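Morning. Coffee machine broken again, so started the prediction first thing and wrote up yesterday's gels while waiting. Chain of 154 residues, entered below exactly as on the submission form.
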Amino acid sequence: MFKGCRSRWREIAWLLMTLILVGGCGQPTTVKEGPLQISDARIRALAPGQDKTAAYFDVHNPGAADITLVGAEMAVARTVEIHRIIRDGDMVRMRRQPEVVISAGETVRFAPGGLHLMIFGVSSAVDGAEIALNLSDGRSVDARFREVPLGAQQ
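Came back before lunch.
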């Protein structure tokens, strides 16, 4: 009886050690399963005295149908909005976007000077934070974001 239990405990111990080792190998910034593939997910460090920042990533739609991103949520933030930088002559404006369509087979880049997530009311550290990207069909895709220092090449 005890021999079988010891073997089972050994299997559980190996599983736990594997999970701990894999979980401790840095912050994942890529999601490859699900309706969208998220890569190079990064979030700008908070400026001193500020509670807002921006997040950037590449999102690929490997499917055969278009997918519409309609919002995002982050546990340590009050609000996350999709924004786009628009240049009009000498004027540069930031506009909230109600949605972004990721066409079948295409990749959309969220990057400085273009599409990005604006994150408001941040209440704690952002390194390794998870952001849920909400889709128009009710599904969401979770991705972990690594922090990049202010002024870093993004």
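Confidence is low (pLDDT under 50) at residues 12-29. Going to sketch it on the whiteboard this afternoon.
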